[in-house]
Specification:
Elements lengths: L15 E7 L2 H13 L5 H12 L3 H10 L4 H10 L3 E6 L9 H21 L4 E3 L1 E2 L5 H13 L5 E3 L14 H10 L3 E3 L10 H5 L8 H15 L2 H4 L5 E3 L1 H4 L5 H14 L12 H7 L1 E4 L6 H11 L4 E2 L11 H7 L5 H15 L4
Parallel strand pairs: 1-2, 2-3, 4-5, 5-6, 6-7, 7-8, 8-9
């Protein structure tokens, strides 16, 4: 089939895509301006948005156009791919590359743009709230406002100027998210400048590998810092089949226990549970960008069918034929319905 072939909606389940990106044109313009100013000093941002902002190749041109649209173009692409509903969030790196006051204002403006689109298309779109971790207390206030806008979760694009949410100065965000029962989608960012060098040298800093390594590290830092012990009802989501963490659970448990027992690191303290327990109980994963049956099944096996959900990663990986690959998985209808529909309805309170 070609990418323009329309895929019929499936009468047996809704296809809910849970990691779909947008960006107001004003934000895209600010990314380009920031890149061209060379003032940020972040090689990851320069690599990512230097490419997407300036390249005239077909793929980045397509992505720029589709990121900025929250109406006819996006819905036409959803219909062509058989997608019933999108969970939409501000694209990476969100507002996390701007100075504090600009970031706070831009997050608010972006949330208003998305909320308006959800009002126009309530059966097709659900929004996640963008925040500025640079200002944790104000971010918590924005979450309260977003709840009134009917946002169903939070998007955070991993590190902020190389700082991680495992630092307790950010924990007001976790406290608010838990209290408001809003899941946090921990989305990738390029590795920070003290980490990215070997990735850029090999062209591996972006979605091909660097994203997953950096975001998987971030989630592990959150777990081992005791965030889920402090906030046991907090829910987080990671994409791309869990940024590889499901496949490391056995070793993570073994080595974390060994490290604590040996007191090798002052920062590594005992936890109430095993690392794998937090992954099973506090974390959901999506298959964004990984339309691969063996990976989906393995994650369902080790995390639970009720922890794995579908995502397309639109518009960065808009490949409608992958929907057919997922439809064709050798899986019971019950489990396939959970993957496409049931888990997302539960996590984002769509029912």
């Amino acid at each position: 089939m070609t990418e323009t072939t329309k895929i019929a909606l499936n009468p047996n389940y809704k296809r809910i895509a849970t990691e779909e990106a947008f960006a107001p044109q004003a934000v895209l313009d600010m990314y380009r301006k920031l890149y061209e100013s060379h003032t940020l000093g972040d090689p990851g941002f320069d690599s990512l948005w230097g490419f997407y902002s300036t390249s005239k190749a077909a793929r980045p041109s397509f992505i720029r156009e589709k990121l900025a649209d929250l109406d006819a173009l996006r819905i036409a692409d959803m219909d062509a791919a058989g997608i019933d509903h999108q969970i939409i969030a501000l694209t990476s790196p969100g507002v996390q590359v701007f100075e504090r006051d600009i970031a706070v204002s831009l997050a608010r403006e972006s949330n208003d743009v998305l909320a308006d689109a959800v009002k126009r298309h309530p059966t097709r779109f659900t929004g996640l709230c963008a925040i500025a971790p640079q200002a944790p207390e104000l971010a918590a206030q924005e979450l309260e406002r977003c709840l009134k806008l009917d946002m169903r979760g939070i998007i955070i694009h991993s590190h902020t100027f190389g700082e991680y949410l495992s630092d307790q100065k950010f924990w007001a965000i976790f406290e608010a998210a838990e209290a408001l029962q809003l899941p946090i989608y921990l989305h990738p960012n390029t590795p920070p400048k003290n980490m990215i060098g070997p990735f850029v040298e090999a062209g591996l800093d972006g979605a091909i590998f660097g994203f997953g390594v950096e975001t998987g590290l971030h989630l592990l830092r959150i777990i081992t810092a005791g965030v889920f012990d402090r906030f046991p009802r907090l829910t987080m989501i990671v994409g791309h089949m869990g940024e590889a963490l499901p496949y490391w659970m056995y070793r993570l448990d073994y080595m974390h226990e060994a490290g604590v027992r040996a007191a090798r690191y002052e920062c590594m303290k005992p936890l109430k549970k095993k690392v794998s327990d937090y992954l099973r109980e506090n974390v959901y994963i999506t298959n964004s960008g990984v339309a691969w049956e063996p990976a989906v099944k393995f994650a369902q096996q080790v995390l639970g069918v009720d922890r794995v959900m579908y995502a397309m990663d639109y518009p960065y990986q808009y490949t409608p034929r992958e929907v057919l690959d997922m439809d064709a998985m050798d899986m019971s209808l019950e489990h396939k319905r959970e993957f496409y529909q049931g888990v997302a309805e539960k996590v984002f309170k769509l029912r």
